[in-house]
Write a structure and sequence with these properties.
The protein is mainly beta. It contains no helices and eleven strands. The chain has a domain at 64-180: Immunoglobulins (Immunoglobulin-like), CATH 2.60.40.10. Keywords: Hydrolase.
Length: 183
């Protein structure tokens, strides 16, 4: 590994904070309820007067090569109650050496009876790509993967709009949305 014969592809199972005041920091934290207005930088008062991003996010990893992700494509903008949504993303090795990439699937429930985490890991795939090679990475998402314990202590999914990211760690990627329909 030190001489470049092997390309590392491990990922962090935790997030590392930038400063101790961010403790505890974890990738699937709940929303604070305070609006995030990045354009209002003057006269701001925030929960923490420090960067809110982790130093190294959950799922972060190093490699001797680089990868590019296309925007995820959904099989449908709506997920029926008993259907499965297929999410496809093209991943390309843009570097000069072969490498393995851990492609991660995250989901966020926009409105629920309980506050939901900002992102939840719902799947991952490890792919080996040669320089310049591309592959389509496919995830299948069913209603059960969207379930949680609601305000009545019943485990299940609630209809609504969800954000989906297919990316290399918990803090990057471009979201696409779909709607889970009622039964």
């Amino acid at each position: 590994m030190l001489f470049g014969d092997y390309n590392p592809s491990a990922r962090l199972p935790i997030s590392f904070p930038q400063v101790t005041g961010q403790q505890p920091y974890f990738y699937n934290h709940l929303r604070t309820g305070r609006p995030e207005l990045p354009t209002l930088s003057e006269y701001k008062a925030r929960w923490r007067e420090m960067p809110n991003e982790p130093l190294y996010p959950f799922g972060h990893g190093l490699s001797y090569t680089t990868f590019a992700y296309a925007q995820p494509q959904l099989s449908s903008a709506q997920l029926g109650w008993d259907q499965t949504l297929t999410i496809t993303t093209r991943v390309t090795n843009t570097g000069r050496v072969a490498g393995e990439e851990v492609v991660q699937l995250y989901v966020h429930d926009r409105v629920a009876s309980r506050v939901r985490p900002v992102r939840e890991l719902k799947g991952f795939r490890k792919v080996l790509l040669q320089p310049g090679e591309s592959t389509d990475v496919v995830f299948n998402l069913a209603r059960d993967a969207l379930a949680f314990t609601n305000h009545r202590n019943v485990f299940g999914a609630e209809p609504g709009v969800f954000d989906v990211w297919v990316c290399a760690s918990a803090k990057i990627g471009e979201a696409v949305t779909f709607e889970l329909l009622e039964a």
